[in-house]
Amino acid sequence: MTEEQGGTKKRSDPTSQLARGELVHAEVKPLDLSGIPSVITGIALWAVAFVVLLIFRDQLKADGLDWWLWVPVAGFGLGLIGLWYCKRRWAAIQAGHRSITED
Prior knowledge:
Blueprint: H1 3-6, H2 14-19, H3 36-55, H4 57-62, H5 70-95
Helix pairs in contact: 3-5
């Protein structure tokens, strides 16, 4: 009787190894604790999207899609609110009034 016939063959996929306790996850800390660079990147992308849609404004109007111009405006505005929140949160963390994991 071979290993395959007896059913005693050990599975080597990561899920099985994790279930048997053979894999240990290393604790990985996040690279950006403040979130500010991510929010600024999002704001910049919304601004670029607005400029691109502004270039095609006449075509959008002809197709009845002129409301698309307001989508990046809303994204930009919400990004500014998110930036204010992230800056305020980061200042509180730096001052020791709040823990990093608290939200």
